[in-house]
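The authors assume throughout that readers already know how a fold can be written as discrete tokens. For illustration, here is how one protein appears when written out as sequence plus structure tokens:
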Amino acid sequence: MKQLVAVVLSLTAAIGLASGHVNAQDVGDDAFDLSQLAGLPIEIAAIELPTTPQGGTISALEDTSPVIESDDLTFSVDLGGTEGPRVPSQSVVLIILITLLAVAPSLLIMLTSFTRIVIVFSLLRNALGLGTTPPNQIIVGLSLFLTLFIMGPTLQESYDEGVKPFMDGAIEQDVAFDAAMSPFRDFMSANVGAGELELMLGAASIDEPPATPDDIPLRALIPAFILSELKTAFLIGFIVFVPFLVIDIVTSASLMSLGMMMMPPPMVSLPLKILLLVMVDGWVLISETLLTGFNF
């Protein structure tokens, strides 16, 4: 123990002298000659190094990680077997789902009945004179669920004929796309206007009229369908506006005849319009008109 204390004191004194913080007087009699360390019974334990299969030793600093030759690195994006249609992997399915989520709003607006429904409901709200009632979330939500109800058979047919066979590896990608778009093509062809379709076909330099809906290119069918939906939606909106416009005119004329020119006509006509809408069950009536107004 005395020898261990002496070693510690000597090392401390040596470090202090080297740094300039300890002088010879501070060390005093406790100083210990470092040369005495040679006589101390200090044993150094031997470290056994791992050996190689050939009998040699491995240095502690030697990298023992396995070396991978460049010829052994292969990357594959194969989707399945080598013959016939290939089943898409989970990574490919995930990419397709992310892509669909990114373009879903555009597809919802362009290829379905959503455009007509949301415009008619918005015009009905404006005809009532209610700027934010019902809120936009209610209008869009109701339009969305009505769209899903109307497009349910089309979506199911598209999934059964195009998406599911492609996921099972029964058909190739191009065949799956045509099969999935065929129900939407039939729906748009049944509801597109002749004038709008003729306009887009002429703009696409297609002189001969298509014999079947499958012969109509999508680049002409989709914009023609959207134009037709806008035209039909505003036509229905005009019909919805007429009874409420009559109420506004009668209310204004009545107030003028009574000399109540300082009273705003909307204050009197708004309750009458709401009463009319409730009495005729207007929301249900318009929804029924929209549901039965599409051709399949």
